[in-house]
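Lecture 7 notes: from sequence to structure.

We start with a single chain of 213 residues. Read the sequence below before looking at the structure.
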Amino acid sequence: MKESTTKEQVLKQIRDALIDKSDNPFPDIDFESSVYNEITESLDITFAEAFNEVSGNFVYCADESDFILNFDQIAINRKWNNIFCIDTDLLAILKNSKLSVSSAEKDFLQQIVGITKCEFLIARLGSIMVSSKQMSGRRMNVYPEVHVIIAYASQLVEDLKHALKLIRNKYDTMPSMISMITGPSRTADIEKTLVMGAHGPKEIYVFLIDDSI
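Now the structure, written as tokens:
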């Protein structure tokens, strides 16, 4: 009974607060201004520096041909195999690669490297915005050991608020899932020992293709 009475008291206080709304005690606070310092570098450099700080791997590409050269070289050096991609736009680019890239569902569980697009790159945070509206869906962002993201310079935005505004304008209905990727998956829950890839990819690569020209 006591627990019920306490619960009712709390609910009554919430109802009273909703009915009798008090004035904002701090009317002069500017909620629109950024709390961050102004970005002085270009967005690609800002993103690259922030992304590298969270253990990401950033590769600048002058164009799509340069991307293929960089991708093939890194993949061969890192001995990447079982490369998987289901995005038809990316597969059209990757057909020029020397490497075999599968899109067959039967190969999904065997993939080591998964290739996807993204929605936006958040320069200040070094973060990657992905959503369920992408051709690759949800699972491609978390399943592969190595996640390769192909992005364009036009997808760079300064802050998270800019990305959220743009994604609202991009789709008629908001995606059912919007997620931010900030570096490879990691945890230190067990004996405070850092383990990479505990909840997703161990490595993340962003190949940024310059489409500003």
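The helical segments are 2-19, 43-53, 64-77, 88-94, 160-170. Keep this in mind for problem set 3.
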